[in-house]
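Standup notes, structure subgroup. Blocker cleared on the guanosine-5'-triphosphate input:
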Amino acid sequence: MNDIKSETIAGGRPGSGAHRVVALCGPYLSGKTSLLESILYATGAIGRRESTRAVTSIGDGAPEARKRGMGTEINVASVDYLGDQWTFLDVPGSIEFQHDAYAALAVCDAAVLVCEPSPERVVALTPLLKYIEDHHIPHILFVNKIDSAEVRVRDMLSALQAVSGRKLVLRQVPIRRPTNDGGEETVGYVDLVSERAYRYKPSGASDLIEMPAEILPRESEARREMLETLSEFDDTLLEQLIEDIAPEKSLIYRDLHDEFGADQIVPVLLGAGDRENGVRRLLKALRHDTPFVGETAKRRALPSNGVALAECFKVLHQSHAGKLSLCRVWSGALSEGQSVGGQRIGTLLRPFGQRLDKIAEAKAGEIVALAKVDALSGGQSLGAGGIAPTADFPPADPAVFGLSLKAKNRNDEVKLSGALHKIVEEDPSLSFEARRDPRAADQGPGRDASQGRGRQARRPLQRGRRHGNPARGLSRDHPGRRPAARALQAPDRRPRPVRRHQGRDQALAARLGLPFRRQGRGRRRTAQLHPRRRAGPGRVHQGRPARSAGGRPRSHPVRRPVPFRRQLGDVVQDSASRCCSSRSSR
Ligand SMILES: Nc1nc2c(ncn2[C@@H]2O[C@H](COP(=O)(O)OP(=O)(O)OP(=O)(O)O)[C@@H](O)[C@H]2O)c(=O)[nH]1
Ligand SMILES: [Mg+2]
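Run returned:
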């Protein structure tokens, strides 16, 4: 029999060495990274299957992901499987990283949507399914954790159908066995096209077994439903079903291939990612049905004419490698030292988890990391015409909350804004803007509270910063006081009245043998601003103590405190005139 599947594939055939990309996506903790680990093990890319629970897996190898026990960035791993090259993009499921999921979906040939066997959680698939269906991305639904499933597959399928806009086609029925505690467990499956039964093993490929007699009615009913769905898009199959002719398996495989590639149907597979159950069945389905790079480029209206074209879908900033632009090559090839659209291609790297392998050339279909192409960011393509935005790349989602950041040390402000630039480049759904310090309200745009002022004027601000209270140390009429105080309107953090120099004045009064009484702020400031005047009797305590001692002599009029703003004005003026004079003297 001819291999009808290979004959119908335009733009490549399984085993031809072509490079295809599959995105593993799905809700948070649905088991994508565990599935990736099993895929890597099943294809021989790793010699030992590690677990995400033990934080030893290839995926989620970044310190942040390890620390949090969840995916925080796209895990990229390429494998060789039966003569073809595959790159799997395992995306984080958490909603905070949704843009990464969309970016990976934008560049993949097919997506595997991993979900848990729980009908009440299928609603979490909705945003991903919407993006996938809007962009006509061929996708498979992989019902994971089937080992711990308590729900019937039929109920799961109807829950999934309720959120899917495409017809679902169940490809397997589970073989279940009662357990000692009165429940049931899934021990294998029947493939509905080949009509063969398999028993799962804790590790390795499932064993072919004889079809259990008790499953036959369920199997024939599920197969009939599968064929009816496929016949909705194929008249030949429909005629055969009407005339009660058993269709050829090759015809069923071809329909599955064509209708999957056209995003008309969604095959549903069962398995348990962290036990390797159903993983080989999934790989085989991908091998036969995933479109090739030329077809995907056509779907996205990208040129595939042999001229080098790569699309960046993600930027990573790494401490040792600098900026890495993760790209998919859509057409032609990229090689080290080549110049494309005015950009020199430096080092080419192939990611495998946290590892980066240096390669000399990246062919069409491959995922490659370009090192230090500073001008290239996510959502842009690099071709002969230079760098240009890709039309259908997912736009960044609007922000849902804001956060205010402040450098603890003023000298770190430049570092902070540099770091924020990198974070925003890595995840465009984040954005930031630099806002002026509220205390700089009277200084015009672009200047902060301490610019253009002398040391004396800066001191209270620095003191305020040190104490975490921006109003602290500012006089009542300081221009920055009110906005700073408003920023601290939380009832428990109202700026407390300023008490300064009381101790010093008290000591001085004691030395001069004068009574001391706590005073208002104006008096204290007078004492502070005119220290020399404190020497004479009656000068330090110009308030009630002096009056109670017989009043102040007329020859010594009370010096009113100089408002701080005026004094500040003198300082600014002073420094300005000094500055002008030094310039004119040059
Ligand atoms: N019983 C069972 N548990 C599984 C299976 N696959 C994964 N798990 C468990 O599910 C949890 C989450 O697995 P991960 O592979 O990290 O899930 P993920 O989808 O990559 O998570 P995020 O990337 O954070 O969204 C881990 O505790 C796994 O051990 C499975 O097939 N059966
Ligand atoms: Mg993960």
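Discussed briefly. The domain at 309-389 is CATH 2.40.30.10 (Elongation Factor Tu (Ef-tu); domain 3).
Next: hand off to the docking folks.
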